[in-house]
């Protein structure tokens, strides 16, 4: 929808189709394998490392999220040792902050959704931070049993500095909608790794909504266990007031006849605001007959805002159904604004409609009505905040 | 009332090599109750006339004036021109993903009328206008122009014309790319609009075909950024027979 902007400082939309294995750092439980980043490393080069320093080293703390959950009887949330959590994890940490999270976690948690459980109502957990001076480390295992059908909504809010590792194991034939709604206080710091393992013939849909916080850096990784798995990943982010929001995705098509579809959209506004989206897809030699498509669209609402968008596709077999990606970063489309205004709609309202539409387009594909409504409301709230500032960007 | 007066209109368009003059002094008056047709070869400036009157940011009026019932349009922002009574039906209506036709129409109607349309009657009016244009009711739930066929887009423009009810409609090649059935539907819509009291229509077209269904009071032939000749509907017949060559060069 947006008009491409080619000034390099404001937009990067380079698609790299060469093998880029350095983008998939070695995963390891050993902290030694994740040296303190200096900021020049490929996987850290966009991140304001200095602002995240508190989450990259340091000792365990006594703090934790205040967890609010009214769980259905069949669903349980319990604690386990970190040693046990490592056995249950999808994979070891992929970066320093996830490694620190596990290193400093005294007790891990496990959310169990038993096999065959079918729930229409979403299962909701709220994780609330209670002070930005606190550091929180979390390691959470989510077990979705085979043939279960559930919607899971994680809501993060409040003020805190947290490093997390979340491992989601989805059993054979299960259907999981997993929504992460990050509505942090403006000073919150967040670094987390989400790893999803999609079971044979399972269908997983994740939604990542990143709305608040000073710095957010999310590593989202997915892998398959058996053929026929389907993964859809939707994301939306609003970045304003000199905030930083970074999503780094890695989908490992390690099994044949698996599918993945990624669509992330962001609106960035204000001097010093920065969004980063890196989408890596690896199609391994054995992954025949797979289909993958990833898209990222960014709307720059004002000058001084920056969006980096880098899709990568690494293909080791040509025997696939399809693989593609797209990335656009641009300002308001003059033609869209002209069309709306030519019908009498004032400029500020026209801009609002365009931004709303940009997100509605993705929100309506989530197909979890309650979540759709809440995200729409969140978008409206953000628009109320930024609307007066959406002036003509030139 | 709906009298559109164009006087000595000069318009530049932004190009990669700087501004280029496209309109070189257009004089034209469409009086209340009239339908005028503008015909002309490609590149003669017909579309530029439409877009510059509506206020597209790519076009700049450098000289002359355009008034609608005495209100100078060239000084007004785009949306204010619409509020003054102007409607532009576009050759290539723009897609606005995620914004439903229903939401778009309600927002536009509210802005134009200064108050929200009545919940009791508006949805029915929308359905009826769509139906007259051979468009399903579900059309209202689709994103503005997104994934519409060429014909659906044009019929959508005329449905908007009916619902938004401006005083003057400039329709830019609304007939191009339509099959004969769609053309008849669109022409019916234009005719019905022009017969409402206090309306005027400026119909820009490349072909004479639509003029068999919508009968203009005046026909203007546009060449090289000006009106080269003005006449009655016989002028269209003459063009049908002999083409534009007689006026070019």
Summarize the structure in words:
The complex is a heterodimer of chains A (394) and B (249). By secondary structure, chain A is of the alpha/beta class. Chain A contains 6 helices and 18 strands. Chain A has one domain (3-332). In chain A, helix 4 packs across helix 5 (347-363) and helix 5 runs antiparallel to helix 6 (369-386). Chain B is of the alpha/beta class. Chain B has helices spanning 46-54, 78-83, 101-113, 122-132, 150-164, 180-195, 234-242; strands spanning 4-15, 18-30, 35-39, 59-68, 71-72, 86-89, 96-100, 143-144, 168-172, 200-205, 218-223, 226-231. In chain B, strands 6-9-10-3-11-12 form a 6-stranded mixed beta sheet, sandwiched between helices. Chain B has a 4-stranded antiparallel beta sheet with strand order 2-1-4-5. The mean pLDDT of chain B is 95. At the A-B interface, helix 4 and helix 5 of A face helix 2, strand 7, helix 3 and strand 8 of B.
Task: Detail the topology: elements first, then pairings.
The complex is a heterodimer of chains A (394) and B (249).
Chain A: E1 3-4, E2 11-12, H1 49-52, E3 66-69, E4 76-81, H2 82-88, H3 96-104, E5 107-113, E6 123-144, E7 149-170, E8 175-184, E9 189-198, E10 203-210, E11 215-224, E12 230-239, E13 244-253, E14 259-268, E15 274-283, E16 291-300, E17 306-315, E18 322-331, H4 334-341, H5 347-363, H6 369-386
Parallel strand pairs in A: 2-17, 5-6, 6-7, 7-8, 7-9, 8-10, 9-11, 10-12, 11-13, 12-14, 13-15, 14-16, 15-17, 16-18
Antiparallel strand pairs in A: 1-18, 3-6, 4-5
Helix pairs in contact in A: 4-5, 5-6
Chain B: E1 4-15, E2 18-30, E3 35-39, H1 46-54, E4 59-68, E5 71-72, H2 78-83, E6 86-89, E7 96-100, H3 101-113, H4 122-132, E8 143-144, H5 150-164, E9 168-172, H6 180-195, E10 200-205, E11 218-223, E12 226-231, H7 234-242
Parallel strand pairs in B: 3-10, 3-11, 6-9, 9-10
Antiparallel strand pairs in B: 1-2, 1-4, 4-5, 7-8, 11-12
Helix pairs in contact in B: 4-5, 5-6
